[in-house]
Amino acid sequence: MNTTDLNECAVCAEKCNNSTHKAILCEYGDCNFTACKACVRTYLLNTTTDPHCMMCKKVWTEQFIVLHLNRSFIINDYKIHRRTLLLDREISKLPETMHAAERYKRIDVQKTIAADINEKIKEARKVLDNLITQWNDANRVLHLLKSGKDVVQEVERKKFIMPCPNNDCRGYLSSQYKCELCTLYTCVNCHELIGYQKDDPHTCKEENVQSAELIKKETKPCPTCGTRISKISGCDQMWCPECHKAFSWRTGLVDNGVIHNPHFYQYQQENAGANAAPRTPGHVVCGGLCEWYIFNNNILRKIKSGTLMPDTGVELRTYLADIHRFIAHITRVDLFAIRAKVRDLSDFEEMRCKYILQQISKEELAKTIYRNDALRKKLTEMLHLYELLSVVGTEFFAKILESVNVQEAFITEVITQCEEYDRLRDYCNKQFKAISLTYNQTVPCVSKNFVITSKKYTFTVKKVKKTAEANEIGANEIGANEIANEIAENVIIN
């Protein structure tokens, strides 16, 4: 029997059609094995391994399965089979998990003990801090008395929390809401000036109080200078335009690592060469992405201000800064996070321990394993795209740094490189769309100015006129075929 005959199934010998016996050609070009949809579905529901070709045994991608076997099959019959298969795999590992379960139980006990001790430490620390304060006060008074001076109230060391609202002052308010430069007090509730005395007559306006509350709610103070910083979207790292320090939005602590905030790039571009650490020109750490200040100092000065990207009209300098910021973020933040997540999702030992210790049921174990397995596959596909963007982007800046062209030839080369990377961005967005359609989940989307947003794509199912064939296929199959058309028309399939 010819295994590449698209008109006849190589398994059941039935004639192939466009419905339940639609011909499914193996995903891999060196195989060319063909079987009908019904036989492939039956085979996958009876195999105990990951979905694969029944001839060459190579594992099929999730996208190929959804595209050719339809989502209705994936989210119903195959989902039940897959959950059972994954659960059985983990259940078979229970005997070898017993030692880990015993260790996990001891860990739980120690966590409880440590938590109790930590609470006691917190209480003891409060008492100790209070005693230290009293001790310092007593010694201060003792020193003043011994020196024959009057005992005066110690001036509290000020913690500056926000800029002074006085337009003619550049000072900062202390925790008492007093500016030490202009000596004016500010209202705690509405953030308006009171006067030179804290109890000067003042009436808060309701709109000012609401505005102040909104500022407190939606902004956080820079840990260095106290300037209020807002966060619209993006990652955890913030950058203060006043003191030029990066900090974590979540913890409020200064971030001394690599700065990849877009406002930092804008500042560096506008102040080329300012505060740059002295390094060898063109220095690239470990062959990775070049530091921005090096590129800024050595390359951007060769590009005339006002040079625009064709079609978009974006200034070339700004465009390069956007690309570098994007590559730095995915290389130094996203890749590490996704790789760690994939590793965690591949290990179910902790879940098996919880099951052995009766902390979760078998149903909860099955749900978690299936969900984590699907998320792992999705993140793995995303990881490959991020790695592609990172590697090509790093080479992109290396080529520009090493270019020997000058003047117009150099500008042309840079624009060409930018256009090539933009095409890669467009390609990856299409692949992200394919991942979203395959897993029915939210995926990243890279905008034209290289800002990462989240997006979930949905299928547009067209109305299908009822025919005898449509009645035979059924409503689910019609929708599934439209899904296949949606992917085929909009997504590049490798």
From TrEMBL:
Gene3D superfamilies per record: 1.20.120.1750
Start and end residues of each RING-type domain: 5-274, 9-57
Keywords: Metal-binding, Repeat, Transferase, Ubl conjugation pathway, Zinc, Zinc-finger
GO molecular function, one term: zinc ion binding
GO biological process, one term: protein ubiquitination
Protein name: RING-type domain-containing protein
Organism: viral metagenome
